[in-house]
Amino acid sequence: MLRGVLGKTFRLVGYTIQYGCIAHCAFEYVGGVVMCSGPSMEPTIQNSDVVFAENLSRHFYGIQRGDIVIAKSPSDPKSNICKRVIGLEGDKILTNSPSDFFKSRSYVPTGHVWLEGDNLQNSTDSRFGL
After folding, report:
1. Where are the domains of the chain?
2. pTM for the predicted model, two decimal places
3. Are 80 and 34 in contact (CB under 8 A)?
4. From CA 116, how far away is CA 54, in angstroms rounded?
5. Active-site annotation holds for 83
6. Which of 31, 39, 60, 103 shows the smallest number of beta carbons within 10 Å?
7. Distances from the Cα of 129 to the Cαs of 74, 90, 98, in angstroms?
8. Exposed, middle or buried: residue 78 (CB in 10 Å: 0-12, 13-18, 19+)?
9. Class of domain 32-122
10. pLDDT by residue (tens digit) across 47-94?
11. Which residue out of 8, 40, 72, 106 is catalytically annotated?
12. What is the pLDDT of residue 6?
């Protein structure tokens, strides 16, 4: 009797660990569901839209201009931001600063990308501090 209960318990624990590993790999390497909050990507992505953020294309094709990415927020590393890739490392970016009407030039440093929201008037992005 005890042997049967222990056997079922160990099988249940084994299945739980297996399914947990499969779920972890799926979310880590394939992608997951993300809720985007804030108006910075409007009209493309609305506030509170739920999107599937896939991870495979960056491994196969790299990050390209025009891609929409989920990145760590520089002001709060515990939260994520959703932005569009405008420039890759070494690119010269000509932008209007959100605080004025003057154009400024910036170069994207090595190992970085330039991110902007589609709603330029209401987005904290790579232009922050210009």
Report:
1. 32-122
2. 0.74
3. yes
4. 20
5. yes
6. 60
7. 12, 19, 9
8. exposed
9. mainly beta
10. 889 999 898 888 888 899 999 999 888 888 888 889 999 999 999 988
11. 40
12. 79
